[in-house]
Amino acid sequence: MSSIKEKFNQISPSEFFYRNRDLAGFSNPTRSLYTAVREFVENGLDACDQKGILPDIHLTIKAVDPEKPDPKPYILTVKDNGPGIESKHVPLAFGTVLYGSKFGLKQARGMFGLGATMAILYGQITTNKPVTVKSSTDAKTSDEFELILDIQKNKPVILKHKTKDVSKKGLSVSIFLEGDYSKAGAKIRDYVYQTSLITPYATITFDDPKGEKYHYPRIIKTMPRPPTIIRPHPYGIDVETIRRMIVESQFEIPTIDDAMIEKVRKDLGLSKKNLSFTAIMAKAKTRWKNLSRQVRVVIALMSFLKMDFEKLNKIRIEDIDVPNKKLFYWDFGDSQSKSVDMDPESQYYRQLTNTVQGETLTAFLTKRFQRVGPTTAVKFAQFAGFKPEKRIGSMTNQELVKLSDALQKFDDFMSPDPSCLAPLGEEPLEKGMRKFFEPDFLAVIQRNASAYSGFPFVVEMGIAYGGNINTRGIKVYRYANRIPLLYDEGSDVVLKVVNDIDWSRYKAKGDPPLVIVSHICSTRIPYKTVGKENVADRQEIEKELKLAIQFIARKLSVFMNKKGQAEAAKKRANLYAKYIPLIAQFCTELAGKTKEPNVQKILQEEKPIENE
Amino acid sequence: MSKKSDKAKALQKKATEKQKNILEMLKSHGAKIYEDLDNGQFPKFSIPSRSVSNIVYDKKLRQYILGNSTALRSSRNTSQLRSFTQLMWLAFFANRLTNEKKSSTLRDIYYSSQAFAIDFEDQAESDNIIVDLEAVTSRPREDFHIFPEERSSIFGDLNIEYTIPGYEGKSMNLANHPDGYAIGPSLTTAELVDTSAEIVIAIEKGGLFTRFVEEQVDKKFKSIIINTGGQAPRSTRTLLKRLHDEMKLPVIILTDGDVYGEHIAMVIKSGSANAAHLRELTVPDAKWVGVWATDIEKYKLPTIPMTESDIKRCYDLQKDPRYLDGIWKKELEVFLRLKRKAELEAFSKYGLTNITEKYLPQKLELAKSL
Ligand SMILES: Nc1ncnc2c1ncn2[C@@H]1O[C@H](COP(=O)(O)OP(=O)(O)OP(=O)(O)O)[C@@H](O)[C@H]1O
Ligand SMILES: [Mg+2]
User: Fold this and answer.
1) φ, ψ (nearest 5 deg) of residue A63
2) Which end of chain B is less packed: N or C, by CB atoms within 10 Å?
3) How high is the pLDDT of residue B352?
4) CB–CB of B78 and A599 under 8 A?
5) Is the bond into B291 cis (omega within 30 degrees of 0)?
6) Nearest-5° angle of CA B114, CA B115, CA B121?
7) For residue B285, what pLDDT band results from cuts at 50, 70 and 90?
8) Strands annotated E in A151-262
9) Chain B contact for A584 (CB, 8 A cutoff)
10) Higher-scoring residue by pLDDT: A564, B340
11) Which residue in B111, B167, B181, B350 is the catalytic one?
């Protein structure tokens, strides 16, 4: 993590912005307005989701000068009722690239810690105006900031900061930005509409620049279960990630400064006394059991350096070279690097090497990955050709590559843990769709969790027919992690699967008024393009989508059959009602009778059973 | 005088008898339907199937007849309900016509239906229902006072007495009007009293019919001349049959020298597949005397080339069992060989009276040996 941050720090944020504006969706005023809306709305929803708060999102877009032709400056404000951000973190969250709280492995809309800052940067670059953030975490006071980003230093500059009394928690962001609502409007309205469909537990209001209000009140009052953060699955890991995890797993050699020495003295009960090296070692031996890990490491170092506290104060440890059993240090007095040999027989040797070389392979696997038990870990070590007790810190580059390859190839890992996913659930999806489309028929399904390359995913799907649906043909609403996908629909895997279905087999012929809602949840959605608008056709995902759609399509066909039967019965009854009395009339005269036969018996019998 | 009115009474009695039978039959059909309905059942009836597979050629009768397979028409079946109702209406309407002794045409039927909310889409549909009625009752539509629009006519020394209401007993000689008499309902139902003619000449075309009258073919050859106006209408065929059966007159047929002419003669002789459900429309002894394909060569007639459809028609007819032998077979083959045809008028090349003075006598002579 830290290494990535460092990498980005080497370029200025504006440079970063320009390099990545297409990727982040800020390529032109139309797309930028839409992207900015998305970033802020999704942040608000994420914040509420994480704290289990039923979201109330208010989006406002206003033209600075309504008379001007597009593209022109707009004020975009998004206000939520979420947990807010603590005052001291506000400038960081909104003023630096890659500040985020969502890096853990679980499903969220935001992922990179970029969105808000990119939108703010875009606004600042195009209008030269600060961003206004108001945040209240306690429903008592609100911190209100006006910030601009210092583009040279990648630092937020606080122009104004005041506090105010308020009665509601939540956060509001307001930026000025160049946009084109006449072109982006339809997309934004679609986005708001579709977002409300997949977030039926939220109230979303949109005041548009033309004075129109789009209000989508909450349909259900229960929040879906929030996702839990989980450890990664072996299948989803690459060499770079392993390297990062190893760094995290290693214990650092403590810096031996005054504070550290003071702590060691205290723990040995030698605060006041100045003992010789051998006396210190003896004392340590008696107290060993009660010493903390850090202190033990310092004692071990001292044992090889053969120094007392005074001498120790004048050096800095440089490196522990395990293969050569040497300890390097910098002597401030002589201003040079020195080394001592370490005796591998010494009881302190293990202490040091363990610290430097990190965990054993099996411990690393069981502690750092999900769903790997000790038995599996040992089996894997054999499979990969490592000793189970091999210290991962001691692995060479080559060995790391070998480890990473083996992790992908080992078949006996359990499938990924889906608890990090937050599908909407069948009931909320059904309620949302019912409210939105008021259909004649509705079916939903949530498939069991599955996985591709170590990333768990869940497919949810719903189908609605007739009722208030007045579009002809099949309309597909695509979602990934509760975000509607509006652009680039052509090459999407969901559409591919929908189009591959022979709908006439399911009694939906011609251009039926059909709506399909597809939601893919995953810790990593395999987007086809950086624009994050269409999902690539991973075999596993395609299979799940297919099974889901076949399931709901079968239900549709049962309904259509019944409906067809009811319609046919009605048609028949109408025909009888029209013709039988005529036949009665004609045959009465033909038979030379005066009274017509009683046809009610037949007509009654053939009355259709009313449709539900 | 008194003899005449006696005969008129007898005729009337006969006509009334026939009418009574028809009305009885319609009534019994109606009663069955009525009963079904009253019992809370969907009425149904069976009808001889008129599908191609059920149309067979009867060698003894020398005509097409319907086979044994029948189809059930049920008012429960919604795809049949409409035509079922239409047929009921038609029976009901025919009943009225017969009762009131009123006649109507196929076209009349189509329009009359509209007063009863019976939605015939077009006349073809109503014509088809009329055929249904004929099939169910095995009676020609004329029995129900339904007639086609007439184009055919008759001329010659034949005394008739009308049986239609208002004209009962009134008599007429059919040589009294040189344009000939239209063959309509009153003529087909008239009593054929007597004639001096010894043969009936049916001719395909109105133009030639007029020429024959002018040239007094009726007198010169002791004949009754009938203009079939192309394909002979059923009333004309009925009359031809009656002239043959009741007056014992042989019938010869003169048509254009093409495949259609040949078939006009064949239909008079042995009926059409369209009317396979009826048996009183054929004159099996009628003889086609020309214009034959062989005549074209023999008389060196001016010709026109056959069209694609003429040729196709030849091949179609070659599959018909009636064209498997005799002149029928031979002439088809010659037509196909010549690929040319000639009209009756072609004889005008040799003078306007050539046909009546030269050709006809030869053919009449020939007919005796056919
Ligand atoms: N409305 C909000 N309420 C509370 N916290 C917020 C809100 N908006 C942003 N944050 C905090 O600021 C961080 C940065 O937001 P930002 O949009 O830049 O990144 P992200 O949402 O984590 O990822 P992404 O780049 O994919 O949007 C978030 O991770 C979150 O901790
Ligand atoms: Mg975000």
Assistant:
1) -80, 140
2) N
3) 81
4) no
5) yes
6) 10
7) very high
8) 155-165, 170-179, 203-207, 213-216
9) yes
10) B340
11) B111
For residues B15 and B4, give the distance between their C-alpha atoms in angstroms, rounded to a whole number.
16
Active site residue B359: no
| Secondary structure of residue B326 in the 3-state scheme | helix
Q: Is the pLDDT of residue B263 over 50?
A: yes
Cβ B231 vs Cβ B205: under 8 Å = no
- For residues A94-123, one letter each, b for 16 or more C-beta atoms within 10 angstroms of the residue's C-beta and e for the rest, the string is bbbbbbbebeebbbbbbbebbbbbbbbbbb
Whether residues A602 and B42 touch (CB distance < 8 A) is answered with yes
Query: Among A40, A53, A96, A102, which is best to mutate for testing ligand 1, by the most ligand atoms less than 8 A from CB?
Result: A102
| Region A239-248+359-409: CATH code | 1.10.8.50
Answer yes or no: are the C-beta atoms of A34 and A188 closer than 8 Å: yes
| Å from CA of A40 to ligand 2 middle | 7
Both tokens of residue B325? Answer: 């032998």
Average pLDDT, chain A: 86
Least confident of A559-568, B4-13, B299-308: B4-13
Q: Which ipTM did the prediction report?
A: 0.73
Please enumerate in sequence order all residues whose Cβ is within 8 A of that of B200, keeping only pairs 6 or more positions apart, or say none. Answer: B223, B224, B225, B226, B240, B243, B244, B249, B250, B251, B252
Rounded to whole angstroms, how far apart are CA atoms A353 and A245? 18
**Which residue, among A195, A181, A194, has the nearest Cα to A55 in the 3D structure?**
A195
Amino acid, single-letter form, for residue A79:
K
If 0-12 CB within 10 Å is exposed, 13-18 middle and 19+ buried, where does residue A578 land? middle
Q: What local confidence, expressed as pLDDT, does residue A9 receive?
A: 39
Structure tokens at A341: 């040999």
- Higher per-residue pLDDT: A454 or A38: A38
Instruction: Pick the residue of A571, A575, A586 with the most B CBs within 10 A to test the interface with B by mutation.
Output: A586
Say if the Cβ atoms of A597 and B38 lie within 8 Å.
yes
Contact yes or no for B81 and A584 at CB 8 A: no
pTM of the model: 0.61
Give the number of beta-carbon pairs within 8 Å between A and B: 83
Q: Is the peptide bond before A232 cis (omega within 30 degrees of 0)?
A: no
Nearest CB to A590 within list B85, B95, B116 = B95
Q: Which domains does chain B have, with CATH numbers?
A: 2-147 (1.10.10.10), 196-369 (3.40.1360.10)
Gap from A554 CA to chain B (nearest CA, Å): 30
Could you please state the CATH topology (level 3) that the domain comprising A418-556 is classified under.
Answer: Ribosomal Protein S5; domain 2 (3.30.230)
- Which stretch of A9-18, A166-175, A486-495 has the lowest confidence by average pLDDT? A9-18
The residue ranking higher by pLDDT, A183 or B275, is: A183
What confidence score (pLDDT) does residue B120 get? 86
Please indicate if any CB of chain B lies within 8 Å of the CB of A571. Answer: yes
Write out pLDDT tens, residues A517-556.
999 999 888 877 656 677 888 888 999 999 999 999 999 9
Q: Which of A582, A590, A600, A601 to mutate to test the interface with B (most CBs of B within 10 A)?
A: A590
What three-state secondary structure class fits B314? helix
pLDDT in tens, B161-185: 998 888 888 999 999 998 899 998 8
Closest CA to A143 of A174, A166, A116: A166
Q: Do A598 and B78 touch (CB under 8 A)?
A: no
Handedness of CA A161, A165, A171, A177 (dihedral sign): negative
Which ligand has the shortest distance to the CA of A94?
1
Task: Determine the atom of ligand 1 nearest the C-alpha atom of A80.
Answer: 1
- Per CATH, is A11-216 categorized as 3.40.50.2300? no
Q: A139 — contact with chain B (CB < 8 Å)?
A: no
DSSP letter, residue A20: H
Residue B260 sits at φ, ψ, to 5 deg, of -70, -40
